[in-house]
Each structure stands twice: as C-alpha cells, then as structure tokens.
Amino acid sequence: MPARQESSRISFWPLWVAIGFPLLLIVLNSSPVAPNFVFVMIGLPVLLLTWAALGLWALIFTILRLRQRAWRCALTSVVLPLVVIGASIHLLAFIHFCNDAGDLLHFLVERPSYLKAIQATPPNGEPRLLIFNLGGMSWSSRGFVYDERDELLRDPSLQSASWKDQAQNSELACGYGAQSFPGHFAFTQHWYLASFAC
What we know:
This protein is of the alpha+beta class. Helix content is 58%, strand content 14%. It is built from 6 helices and 4 strands, in the order H-H-H-H-H-E-E-H-E-E. It has helices at 2-11, 13-29, 37-67, 71-89, 91-119, 161-168; strands at 129-137, 140-147, 176-180, 191-196. Strands 1-2-4-3 form a 4-stranded antiparallel beta sheet, sandwiched between helices.
C-alpha cells in the first residue's frame, strides 16, 4: 500500500509543475524582483530551462508508464510536456502573458497606494496624467499610466496639445507602448499597462 501511494503521489508531480510554474512566474513578475537585471537576464532563462528539463523528465516518465500500461499515470504525466511544448512554440506570448498577469496582480495589491498618490496630486484645472514606473532596464521599463483624459491610446494626431505637454515631462516622452487593463472594470477606469523606452 505505501508503494502504491508513493507511485500515485509521484505520478501527479508533472501536473502540479505544469500549473505551478506559470503561477510562479506570475508571482515573481508581480514582485520587486521582476525588473531586476539579474532576474531578467539570468534568473528567468534558468527557470525556463529548469521547466523544460522537468518537461523532458515527465516525457520519459510518460513513456515508461505507457510501456507499463499505467494509463492514468501516463495521462497525468503527459500534461507537463504538452504545456512546455505549447509555451515553447509561443514563448514570447507566454512570457508576455506572465508579465501582464504579474503586473495586474501587482496593481491590485498596490492600487490603494496609487489612489492616494493620485488624490495627493492637485489637478490644477487639468485632467491628471500620472506615471507609476515599476522599473526595468536602462533601455526599457514597465509600469502603469493613470490618464483621466484617456488619450494615451489615441493616434498622436488625435491627442490634445495639453495632453502632449503633460506627457513631455514623463517617461511617455521616450516612446511607449500601452494597452488597456483586461476587461471593463470600474476600478481600472483611466488605467493602462505601459512599457517605456527609457
């Protein structure tokens, strides 16, 4: 009986790794370690290679279980290699998904402090435009933009002169990419996920 329980426990590890690794990346991307140069250039590749190695081990485990006709164990084991292959084929999309999900998690946790910063900034007769930069490399960083005018995603020819004046005094002047928060929620109104070229 203990051997049977041991076999059952071991057969489920690929399933937990398949689910847990993306969740780990999301949590890491929501933490202060995310923009760290060492994490981005060394830590993230090491984590991805470790995940790939575990996927290869799970594939070997699956083949062994298929030869033993242990169908249920093989079925739970094959999930990890399939997820790793899918993520490898769409690696940039997978990394962007984890980054965006991590940013969203960070935003939800830190939103009260961001709202305090907005309330502490007098509008001076103009709609407010605030940047909350999470940091990054010297050539690129990520963060949140609070834009009461909602002109951030407009074509530059459609952005007002006063909005452009405000943007000139921020990271937006370096060039940026932005997207709305996923979904249409009242608590994300006027908020945008952004990447800055500085």
